[in-house]
Amino acid sequence: MKYNPKLNMIIDGNEFSYKIFETLKCVSKTWSQREAAKRLGISHSVLNRRVKESEEKLGFRLIETTGAGSGLTENGLQILNTYEKYIKRLETRDKPVICGGHISTGLMEVLADEFSLDVTIYRTDDQSALELARKDMVDILTLDDPVRAFMYDLDFTPVAYDYLVLVSNNYDPINSVDDLNGKNFVEIPDSSQRLAWNTMDNIKIDYKIVKLVNSPYSALKAVQKNSDLYTFLNHSFSTGSSILKNDTQHLISLVLCNKENSVLKDFVDYITSDGQDIIEEQGFMRI
User: Fold this and answer.
1) CB-CB contact of 270 with 117 (8 Å)
2) pLDDT of 138-156, one tens digit each?
């Protein structure tokens, strides 16, 4: 079945039918109210009434006369642009969308290539990816940290295991966790680093988080530039000391949001079977 969504919108407490937005779109393309009415299959008087009633509710003009004919006012254009953004979210995607944390989406990119699956991949933090999935903008949600899968009782599929390594540009040896006392750290919020922080908190290590960044790439760059900074990164992403390996081993997982797509189902089956060889080659541990 092919779906063609039409959307009503409430603006400043007044509800407007999709018909006025289609009218604005048609006028913006034809620069003629008469031609727009013709293309919409309505009379010119019906189009005029539709526009005027909407303008009265809003308290400002939507269409104006220009040297080229009829065009949208600045307010009319803003309203149409907002409407089209919402409509775009409802349209069926040409390519499946995979969205998730930096580590898990990096792995998905390799696996999709091996599977010859043409996808769009968006990298962000787990929480942002989860919000996009809730808005039905994601076909496969991937999670760097399993905590949210449990928090929201998601029907997730285990993909691989990973753990955190201590990364720095300081050549002073770190022989035990106690050596981390007094050290300054770079944090990536909403990441699996929470496992390292929790571990150090539990054993009363006196450390400080002095810098926040958005991705493991930025964290790595920060510690490479400053020998006084440390961070924890995924073993699959960077080399480093495995001093907290046993305490930070965690699950990389995915959630199949689009369960109607048989190709995506086959892809998930591949990940949990033959794809495990690729996963191991990428520095992860197989499930």
Assistant:
1) no
2) 999 999 998 988 888 999 9
DSSP SS3 for 12: coil
Beta bridge partners of residue 200, listed in sequence order:
none
What is the edge-to-edge ordering of all strands in the sheet holding 285-286? 120-123, 97-100, 140-143, 250-256, 157-162, 285-286
The pair of structure tokens assigned to 37 is: 């009415």
Count CB neighbours of 155 within 10 A: 9
Q: Write the DSSP symbol of residue 160.
A: E
Residue position matching structure tokens 């960077």: 238
pLDDT of residue 1: 58
Share of the chain above pLDDT 90, in %: 87
CA distance 168 to 233: 10
Q: Do the beta carbons of residue 17 and residue 8 sit within 8 Å?
A: yes
Strands (E), the chain: 9-11, 14-16, 63-66, 69-72, 97-100, 120-123, 140-143, 157-162, 164-168, 184-187, 208-212, 229-234, 250-256, 285-286
What's the confidence (pLDDT) of residue 135? 87
pLDDT in tens, 234-279: 999 999 999 999 999 999 999 999 999 999 999 999 999 999 999 9
State the DSSP code for 111: H
Rounded to an integer, what distance in angstroms lies between the CA atom of residue 278 and that of residue 162? 14
